[in-house]
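Retro notes, item 3 of 5
We never archived the inputs for the MRU complex last cycle. Fixing that now. Sequence and ligand:
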Amino acid sequence: MATSLKAIKFDRNSRSLHVLDQLLIPFQEKYLPIYSISDGYAVIKKMQVRGAPAIAIVGVLSIIVELNYLLKPQGAVVQTYYDIADVENFKNVLIQRIEYLVSSRPTAVNLSNACKDVVQIINHSSTDSPNTLLEEICKYGTKLFDDDLTNNYKIGENGAKFILDNLKQQNYTGPFSVLTICNTGSLATSGHGTALGVVRSLWELSKANKDTEPSTKKSKTNDGSAGDAWLERVFPLETRPYNQGSRLTAFELVYEKIPATLITDNMISFLLDSIANGRVNQPPVKAVIVGADRIAKNGDTANKIGTLQLAKISSLYPGILFLVAAPTTTIDPLCPDGSHIVVEERPADELRKVKGGIRDGDSYKIINIDVAPNEIDVWNPSFDVTGHVLIHGIVTENGVLTKTDGQFSI
Ligand code: MRU
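Structure as it came back at the time:
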């Protein structure tokens, strides 16, 4: 399947919005049109678009398309909630619609922060013209989209250099592997990705590093000296129950031709043991790189369910860095620590069934298969919280935050 790996397509002239239906990936590439905040809410809730930065961008762009269709009707059927002749009413209804949008997914802070910014624009705008308000929100939304991409490249570079520097300090030379969970790549963002962006950047640096004669190596580390370690393999976790790792990250890695071996979430310990004792002939895992949905002021981090287990297991193996990679928009300074983070619980059927594709000629038929009795009680938290104690560094677009005396200063 050919794909541009773009989760979000927004035409800035016509202001039309389409999102890639990620429930169909890797089987089918289908973009869904978004005409309203209700459409935005639905695709976020159903996780047709997911990943903290991507849902914030789609959320804000859905506000823009709703207003655009309302104020410049283009034939789309949009339910009208507003009285545009009464500006106060218009603004109040819009704010209520935005509150509804935010309730789609509670854990990732990016959506609620971006929507707070839009509400600020609405409340502080001196204009009486809905059209002018739309222009102001549009300026904010397109900047959010553009900044996310720029910041992801910076995150990628900062994380990759940090890892190579760290290996240099350990006097480690040669190939190494990394582990990652969920999908934090192009599909979860405006492009490149956060944790997977670090993997991409590491791969780019590593390709150059590996293929270059020692005497002519270009500087790869922050201190200006040549790095002698290179990424050779990525281990993405399957990431049950939604399988973002096997469906989306594996797909991105195959697409980018980055050597990768998929493992299930319960294989982490055996993989690390097996590499250490030679049962599996792969380079040692030197870093675990994960994304984040909300980072509390003390560095505690909510991320995809399974991240905590990954952090705990990898902490048993000396020399493995555990890094969180996220834009500063994922930091929530108002949240003192992880105990205050609301963890979304998803429907039981997401655990009782698995979604898969059956080849049907040239295309795929998507089916849900029962993998548990329908009557079984289920607990399905979508995220977990990893304490800052287990995190060595938080990679942002501004650099890598590390701890002093065991504390992050955020
Ligand atoms: O439930 P999801 O797929 O939205 O969860 C995504 C994650 O947990 C990601 O790691 C996080 O949002 C960062 S994406 C750049």
